[in-house]
Amino acid sequence: MKSNEKRSDAKRVKGAPLVEIKGLKIEGFSDDKWHPIIKGLDLTLKRGEVVGLIGESGAGKSTLGLAAMGYTKPGCRISAGTVNFDGKELTTASQEELRKLWGSRISYVAQSASASFNPAHKLMEQVVESACNHGVMDRAAAEADAKDLFKRLQLPNPDTIGGRFPHQVSGGQLQRAMTAMAMSCRPDLIIFDEPTTALDVTTQVEVLAAMRRIVEEFDTAAIYITHDLAVVAQMAHRIMVLRYGNLVEEAETRAMLKQPTQDYTKTLWAVRKLQKEESKGDDVVISVNNVDGSYSGLVKVLDNVTVRIPRGKTVAVVGESGSGKSTLARAITGLLPPSRGRISFNGKDLPAKLADRDRDTLRRIQMIYQSADTALNPRQTVRDIIGRPTEFYLGLKGAAKDRRVVELLEAIELDESFIDRYPGEMSGGQKQRISIARALAAEPEVIICDEVTSALDQIVQEEILKLLMRLQEQTKVTYLFITHDIATVRAISDEIVVMHKGKVVQQGLKSEVLNPPYPAYTELLLSSVPQMDPDWLTNLLKKRAAA
Amino acid sequence: MHPVLRTVLQRLGLGVLTLLAVSVIIFSSLELLPGGFAEAILGQSATPETVAAFNKSLGLDRPATTRYVEWVTGVFTGDLGKSFAGAGGWRSDNVRTVTSIIGPRLYNTFFLAALTAIIAVPIALALGLLTALYRNSWFDRVCNALTLTTIASPEFFVAYILMFFFAVKLKIFYPLSTVNADTPFLEHVSRAMLPAITLTLVIIAHMMRMTRASIIALLSSPYIEMAKLKGLTGRQVILNHALPNAWAPIATVIAFNLAYLVVGVVVVEVVFVYPGIGQLMVDSVSSRDMPVAQACALIFAATYILLNLLADIVAIVTNPRLLHPK
Q1: DSSP state, A350?
Q2: In contact, A536 and A529? CB cutoff 8 Å
Q3: Which of B222, B230, B244 comes nearest A129 by C-beta?
Q4: ipTM of the complex
Q5: What's the gap in Å between the CA of A73 and the closest CA on chain B?
Q6: pLDDT classification of A8: cutoffs 50, 70, 90
């Protein structure tokens, strides 16, 4: 019953200060020394207020968000400053004191719901755990409350969904269940740490709407962390832009969107301005004809897919996870032989199986993957990584091979000194450049790019996209560019293929696909992309409710 | 059919096939041993004629393939054949079946293995969980050092030390573990105690360290961080959130050690004069009593296959992704 008293506390008024962080410095330990991550930041948060933290990876936004709970990741430490939560100093609080706050008065919603739910327990077990454990409610009351929260968050089958295991529900549902879990003790503060980054745009809309509504309903204060300005604009009253552990700019949401004062903040917009002039191509290099594809022979992942890829152009394949866009790439590369249909390359049928293709055919179709971290062998130097295809396909050896590797490095705007580096010694953007060089080394006609910019920060994304465009001008290579990000599609494509549930919804020039009239699914997809307008979500929901 | 049941049946089928393959290896490798039962028993008086006559009376003059097929079909009908010992024509009334020789020894072996498992597995799991919870503390270090010491010492050495203290000085347990079919259950337990403790000390380190490592490997997962940030205590985090996901590797190591308790304890049996199957196999190989040696080897193989199957089943039922498909 203690917690109920807490709830009726006279101090619990909207607008009263809740969190006050002053002069906070946090360091992380790596390579045998401490490096600064947060370099002296202040943050104040009033009850019921939502503040957005925005920045690229490495800006320190998650670290700051977690510090507001008095928590630092293993290997990090608070070296200076104070974190005051509702009158309590958290930097000096004992683990036991913090443990009592966590889950009950401050809770956390993580980026990847599928990784943050324990795979071994049902959803209900995990959602009610905080409430039962902190003695806020007994099990029965907590379960009834969880069902109510599920309903408010518009989860399907709110009465029974708690009986499912995390792997049995979708990512968007899991993210909402995690919000219910965070809400179970009706905390004063919730930290949302990139909660929609891993979701598809259409799912993101629902999750954002649900989270915003419930935070308003219970007057919960929140810190919303993201790298997407358009998303944070929907959620936060106030935005703080962080870079390298420093504050760049802080302002009310509307003021910041209207008039960012700092150059860095302005660059966060700039990416979206990159745009390639579309051009039509009639010389088809690859055509996919009525292809079906499935993994265990049970579920059709590709359903009668027909796509034409014109030579020297960029065809963007866009769709949500599960739409079959990566499977299409696997069918073209021969990794997944289609169960029906033909794929032709330069007018001739491609053998369905990878093993049946000769080396020259293999050379002509190359692939770049989303995660350069897993696509590059960490034990090989750049010389080996890029040199291997030149040797395997083109027979280069010794000095000739090295010369070619250096040429390729220049083509991707890296200097000679990179030749002896290992992947671990490079940044994410540099590693992705190496992946591009590896694909180029084979001198291919077609490069399939599978979400190659999705794991990168916006500014790095822009650089990579510019590089890809320049390389296309120089080498006339054809790109099949798979992505879920409409902004990227807008930037680089000539033609667009929209996929949904294994089917091609639409294929056409960029100007045709991105302008009305739309097929229903394309419309849903395009309207779900967050805009730099704080009223975008509100208006969209109104419009959808009316329709 | 439930996918788990199907997997289990599949594995069982595969197990039978493996056993068949193993039977070929056992039979042919025993075939390759120099000398035979006749030479071993006749010793110096072995002349080519007597050896041939002896072999003929044992049926060893027939081709190996015939004898193999005979053996395997026998095994499938539950007949392990007859021991060579006492056979040979002139005292044929004394011939014993392999089953009657192995039966009591196998019972003793399983008895000792079970007793050891009952002591060792709970201790190893508890120590594993505690060392994971208090990782890098002095308690963790002492546990690791002690168990590593006992696993690193030769079994017979540990056995004699224990015998010296518990049997000779303190007189709590029997120094020797001679038992027979008439030994009452409780006396059997107390006579088997010293070998059981010796074996416990030998296998505990492996299981404990695997439990600790499996749990610690999970501690950096996002769902463990989430559990911490929900305000759970360290104990709740380990028991409710880490352990349920760590059963598969732990079960594999436990199965491996239990199999060792059945097939690999001949040294301890010899030290304590415990009549288990390990000694029987060594004896039968040295006297070239092939039916007994083959049966022992086959039982050892079956033990490995069954225990690994059990570990696989544990891995499946503790993984909701497999137990509750989408």
Answers
A1: P
A2: no
A3: B230
A4: 0.81
A5: 9
A6: very low
Which residue range forms the structural domain that includes residue A428?
A: 284-515
Global pTM reads 0.82
Burial label for B25, CB within 10 Å (0-12, 13-18, 19+), is exposed
Cβ-proximal residues to A394 (8 Å cutoff; 6+ apart), any chain: A363, A404, A442, A443
Contact: A119, B223; criterion CB under 8 Å? yes
Per residue in B175-233, pLDDT (tens digit) is: 888 888 888 889 899 889 999 999 999 999 999 999 999 999 999 899 999 999 999 99
Q: Is A397 within a domain?
A: yes
Looking at CA atoms only, how far is residue A428 from chain B in angstroms? 22
What is the CATH classification number for the domain harbouring A122?
A: 3.40.50.300
Phi, psi dihedrals of residue A90, rounded to the nearest 5°: -90, -25
CB contact under 8 A, B223 and A118: yes
What's the structural domain count of chain A?
A: 2
Q: Which of B223, B229, B326 sits opposite A117 (nearest CB)?
A: B223
Q: Is residue B26 helix, strand or coil? A: helix
Determine the length of chain A: 547
B321–A167: do the CB atoms touch at under 8 Å?
yes
Per-residue pLDDT of A223-244, as tens digits, reads: 999 988 889 999 999 999 999 9
Strands A365-368 and A446-450: parallel
| Residue A192 pLDDT grade (very low, low, confident, very high; cuts 50, 70, 90) | very high
pLDDT of residue A10: 43
Structural domains in chain B, sorted by start: 3-98 (no CATH), 99-286 (1.10.3720.10)
Contact B222 A115 (CB under 8 A): yes
The Cβ of residue B35 has, within 10 Å, a number of other Cβ atoms equal to 10
